[in-house]
Write a structure and sequence with these properties.
Shape: globular
Structural class: mainly alpha
Distance between the termini: 19 Å
Number of strands: 0
Number of helices: 5
Strand content: under 5%
Order of helices and strands: HHHHH
Low-confidence stretches: none
Amino acid sequence: MIDFKSLSSNQRFVLNIVVPLAYLFPLVVAYLGPKNFGFGFPALVYAGLSIGALGVLLWAAAMWTLGPSLAVLPGTDQLVTKGVYRVFRHPVYIGIVLTLSGLFVACGSLPCLIYVGVVVIPLNIFRARAEEKVLLEQLGTPYQQYRDSTYF
């Protein structure tokens, strides 16, 4: 596990750029690549767009709820437990996966769906674990109680 406290400001800056680019990359590939909308099934286009829209709403609601606590790298001085954070500890990560998966089903991009499974989901799990470790160190028992009462 990375010790985020020991990173230099340059390393933190690079991570603040690289991590969001990992989410942007498959969008560019899907945009530029060949399309097979819904993999030939029109209903999958609508299902994918619905899942993607749900993901965007969850992602936006989570970012709105976090307000000034929003950051790419883990660490905070306060525990956010309102809004979607009452149910999920990592709604931004869930929203990202739903958004990308839904869009890639809608446009019929198998390589991008594979990218989500091989890169995005493991990256989000890694980020969630690192974040939880830092928050447990910083906030202690209140975070443990919150963690025990919520879903991923």
